[in-house]
Write a structure and sequence with these properties.
The structure holds two protein chains of two kinds. By secondary structure, chain A is mostly beta strands. In chain A, strand 6 and strand 7 form a beta hairpin. In chain A, helix 1 packs across helix 4. Chain B contains five helices and no strands. Chain B has helices spanning 2-16, 19-40, 59-71, 77-83, 88-100. The chains are: A mainly beta, B mainly alpha.
């Protein structure tokens, strides 16, 4: 996500800067500088990083802001940035406070990685429902199948406040069935594969909420770090693993109580031979085994953690330069890991715990949740690429042979593919910073060509199919402020659900088909095979 | 009775929805996306924002307010800067878009 919001300047801002220059300069009274770091933490940190080192938005510190004019930074803070998630702070922060913030950030270096120990995690647990036996035995609302639930991470305009929540929708009726306030922007939603009632939501300040989907309420919460989106649930639903950018660690929690069981310092030798401390990339549980896989972004390693006494770690080194996200195939035994800086996706065999092959991707591969479809006897993986370069493609690989099938030309950078066994198209979100950002393109599964472009509005991203594959949900994010629902076959727009800055969309159906695009029967079939042997 | 009122309102609504209006509202929406929505929202402003909602506001009021901001007869640094580059047409279109939005 880091590169999405890199370009903060725009033409309208330059105009604004010129117009605002005089009135702003005319105001000059010193603000109480001691409160500025707290103001930063309250208003900016969830996107720009508690350590001033950036997160989903750019790093703001003495190094990154060197040479930037204080006036243009103040204007940017007041008016926001139109092509990004940066909101206008006019009317929310006083002129003097904005001035103070800009000065503080321009002269303060990136902060050292703050500590957040296992004791801190433990002490942060909040219990909202003491006795879980008092919870209802089945959903308190009408729903035929819990897999029909779709969760949307609504960021809220300011990345915090009333607009920040996880919104749960019945994907048959397209009506909201529950809203869970998350304080700061909800980022990721995962579901317990073993017990349909539990969902886990992580927000942009690394708080993790255990949600009872039957009564649509928070049962418990824990703060796992300062930020970082990664979150995985084990196949038996007993463990959760969450990883952070700040600090550089990950933690395994008891999924039931959210008690921390073990923390991991993320460090290792990168592909260039340097010992580095690392952000946590994706964390994934797999139906294949009682393990978690975690990508160490900067160390270029994938660790496989065994979910048994001691939680031992197998390190797979030299996976790539700057890893990020990944998806599973082949019953969860193969893991496809995106590596930003060398534009590859590395296939890992989780059984042998070694690299199978490094496959060519596009420009800065960001596979999102990835997609795997079975077409004409082949297992095809789809990978998006969110870099801005001439090669704008979606990669298609044959995951049986582990080779590139095609680089499908698309109209821009892409962030997340959606597919479903029952839907004809693989949907990819175009995120290039102009009118293209409003669109989603549809790739025909058979011809592997773009056959249709939807103008969704807003900054359209994170497409997701409903569990039955009949509907395609898309976030019209940033200022679009709605989730738009299309018929998967006719591509007619059939519903709109209003919310502030919606982002990631997560179908409960994922627990059945593991990776989007695989048949829901696929896992059952493989389970059956296993049983027969 | 109610149904009759509803029906006639609908009919009137349909009659008044001619292609010219559609074009105006479309142009207004495009401009609103680029200029207004960051603060006021495409539909409504953020629950946490200090900005007023524009949906369903009086067309004449919206037009005159925007013109005043543009001409700096109504003072607000941010609004004067943002509205400064709008043409008369832009103002009519934006006002038509927001005035035409339904409020729940």
């Amino acid at each position: 996500m880091k590169t999405i919001t890199k370009n903060l300047s725009s033409a309208s801002l330059t105009q604004l800067a010129a117009a605002l220059l005089l009135p702003l300069s005319a105001v000059a009274s010193p603000t109480d500088s001691s409160k500025i770091p707290a103001l930063y933490q309250e208003n900016c940190a969830s996107c720009h990083g508690a350590d001033l080192g950036g997160f989903i938005a750019p790093a703001l510190n003495a190094t990154t802001l060197k040479g930037r004019s204080a006036t243009s930074l103040r204007t940017l803070t007041m008016a926001g940035s139109f092509d990004t998630l940066m909101p206008p702070f006019y009317g929310r922060l006083a002129d003097d406070d904005i001035r103070g913030l800009v000065n503080y950030l321009k002269e303060t270096p990136k902060q050292p990685n703050p500590a957040w120990s296992i004791d801190d995690i433990k002490a942060s647990i909040k219990v909202y429902v003491k006795d879980e036996s008092t919870l209802p035995a089945k959903p308190t609302y009408q729903i035929d199948d819990i897999n029909n639930i779709i969760g949307v991470a609504a960021r809220g305009k300011y990345g915090r406040g009333e607009g920040s929540k996880a919104v749960f929708i019945n994907s048959v009726t397209h009506k909201v069935i529950g809203e869970i306030p998350t304080g700061t922007a909800a980022h990721i939603i995962d579901y317990d594969p073993a017990n349909p009632r539990w969902a886990y939501v992580k927000n942009d300040s690394a708080e993790l909420f255990k949600i009872d989907l039957y009564s649509m309420q928070i049962v418990r919460s824990v703060k796992t770090g300062f930020n970082g989106p990664s979150l995985g649930v084990s196949r038996d639903g007993k463990y959760i693993m969450a990883g952070s950018y700040v600090p550089h660690n990950a933690v395994i929690l008891d999924a039931n109580t959210l008690e921390p069981l073990k923390t991991f310092e993320l460090e290792g030798i990168d592909p260039d031979g340097k010992q580095v401390s690392s952000d946590s990339g994706m964390i994934i549980g797999t139906p294949f085994a009682d393990i978690f896989a975690i990508a160490l972004e900067n160390a270029g390693q994938v660790w496989v953690v065994d979910l048994k006494e001691g939680f031992s770690v197998t390190r797979i080194e030299n996976v790539g330069r700057h890893l990020h996200d990944a998806f599973l195939s082949h019953g969860g035994s193969k893991l496809m890991v995106a590596s930003y800086d060398d534009s590859i996706v590395t296939a890992i065999d989780l059984k042998e715990r070694k690299i199978i092959k490094k496959l060519e991707a596009g420009c800065v591969p960001h596979v999102g949740g990835g997609s795997v479809v079975e077409v004409d006897g082949r297992t095809l993986g789809f990978g998006t690429n969110f870099g801005d370069c001439d090669k704008m493609v979606v990669s298609v690989w044959d995951l049986d042979k582990m080779e590139v099938v095609k680089q499908v030309p698309v109209s821009g950078g892409t962030e997340s593919p959606a597919a479903h066994a029952n839907a004809p198209y693989v949907a990819v979100d175009i995120i290039s910073k102009d009118r293209r950002a409003r669109t989603v393109q549809l790739i025909d599964k058979k011809s592997l060509e773009v056959v249709k472009t939807l103008d969704v509005g807003g900054h359209a991203y994170f497409p997701e199919y409903s569990a039955d594959g009949k509907f395609l949900y898309i976030s019209a994010g940033y200022n679009g402020d709605e989730v738009v629902v299309y018929d998967s076959n006719s591509l007619e727009k059939i519903a709109s659900i209003a919310m502030e800055s919606p982002a990631g969309i997560f179908s409960h159906g994922r627990v059945r088909y593991m990776t989007r695009g695989l048949s829901p029967d696929e896992l059952a079939k493989r389970d059956g095979d296993k049983g027969a042997k | 009775m109610n149904r009759l009122v509803l029906l006639s309102t609908l009919t009137l609504g349909l009659l008044s929805f001619n292609p010219v209006n559609a074009a105006v509202i479309y142009a207004g929406k495009e401009k609103a996306i680029a200029v207004c929505s960051h603060c006021h929202g495409m539909i409504k402003p953020s629950a946490d924002a200090p900005f007023p909602s524009l949906a369903g506001r009086d067309l004449t009021y919206l037009k005159s307010a925007l013109a005043q901001y543009r001409d700096k007869t109504r003072k607000n640094d941010l609004m004067n800067a943002l509205a400064g580059s709008l043409t008369d047409n832009d103002i009519s279109n934006i006002a038509a878009y927001y005035a035409g939005l339904k409020t729940k």
